[in-house]
Amino acid sequence: MATHVCPELSAIKVQTQWREAYADSSDRVALAQAVYRTLFKMAPESANLFHRVNSEEPDSAEFIAFSLRVLNGLDVVITLLDQEKALFAQIEHLHSQHIERHIPPKYASAFVEALHHVLPSVIGHCYDEHAWSQCLNSIAKKILS
Ligand code: HEM
Asked: Where does heme b bind (predicted)?
């Protein structure tokens, strides 16, 4: 079932490619660290937002555990791409976890951009950047809004 978040074909592609990168991964920690390393390279000042989870030391236990909680959150969102009501409930839940932090919306696209950099190196050139943008840009914006 398609949702009005993104077209069905894009949702299927994202789910398939995420399964390859994450569910079948032998090293989720490396994946999570690569996403944040890339985000902090693209937007160095964004690291200040993650002070509470020890972003000053991205190899620390606290930051690794945090980054995996985020990828788990992303996993739930992607799993629900074809279940509109549950997807919106999950987005609302994530929104409530971010609202107090007043995170600038520009970081929503920076986060998706970081995925565009990291995921092709894990799953190869079949990575469909357009499908990922279609599905995740608006979700990331809603989470931060
Ligand atoms: C699809 C996009 C995103 C998902 C799925 C997501 C997921 C999550 C989750 C699950 C948590 C709670 C982790 C916990 O239990 O401690 C969290 C916290 C947080 N997220 Fe996100 N997030 C997203 C985008 C972003 C972006 C773009 C930023 C800013 C660059 C951001 C900044 C934060 C911050 C600052 C926290 C709180 C850290 C702390 O505990 O102090 N998130 N996120």
From this structure: 98
